[in-house]
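Changelog-adjacent note: as of this version, every example in the card shows the full chain rather than a window. The one below runs 327 residues end to end.
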Amino acid sequence: MDEQDEDLGAFDPNIPEEGPSAPPPGWLDDIHGYQGHKGGQDDNPLYPPPPAYNPQPELNRNTLVPNVRVPTISEDVARDALLKFVESKWRYSSKPARNLTFKELNPITVYRYRLETYTETRTSAWQFEPYNGQVVDGPQYGMSPPPWDVPVTLPQRYTDVVENIRVPHTSFVKTCHKCHGCGRTRCISCFGRGQKRCTFCHGNGRSRNKRCTSCHGRGRKRCHFCHGHGYKTCSVCHGSQNLMHFILLTVTWKNNVEEFIPDRQPDFPDKKFEKVTGDPFFIDQNLLVYPIQGFPDQEICDASTRLINGHLNRFSSTSRILQQVQM
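Full-length structure tokens:
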């Protein structure tokens, strides 16, 4: 360190350098039932539901489909549909549709199968907030409930919702890991001196044999990052010196939807079916639904078996299945 560096400003060794923004591994205590936490920034363990929380399917059970009656399409119905389409296109003329002569009318029936599985998933992570004397709900008030015993209010079925809940009795206060309890950290721009060497005159005070107009001949300038203090208020504890840590449980309700449409009409893309409206002629809703049988289209029966088994294998190991519906 040269003489010019020593003249930049006073250095306070009592102000610590910035620590990590997240608690380092091992900084936090273990909480019974949440030992999967390591304390790192990306720590967010997933808790599979206990077996008692997930329904078990009955073997060799199927769902019978009632008789399916496909409505017939007459020339009048087809013409009305064509006229409605023409009316939606302001450049089209309705005259050809009104005067159209049907030579042949071949209705084509395409079925669409849809499976919805409504699931609940629970994860948790350590969180913290500046401690300013608020109530600390710690282990002294009792044992923390396991992740799947924390009470929640179920949202409306088949809606995607995320709710964050502070786990009871997991809170405790600890010195801020970023400022080590000082409430402020050394400015990394001026290295805690409050002033920086002038970049125009390189600290000489003169530029081109004239007094530097940027630093007014002082050779140094006030650090604008810390406003000349040499330190900044801790960005984690906001000067409170202590943090309250707690476990935050994240409950995610999600409606998992999968559809199947037999690929028999290459000229009619599957995306077109997303715009088709109508009433389902068959709806089966239960805690668990079962593969359908007796449907006139065997591909639909096979798709029902495949999708139901796929959802059960995919979601029951990580989430709680709350309801299913097939249509």
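Structural remarks: Residues 1-7 have pLDDT under 50 and may be disordered.
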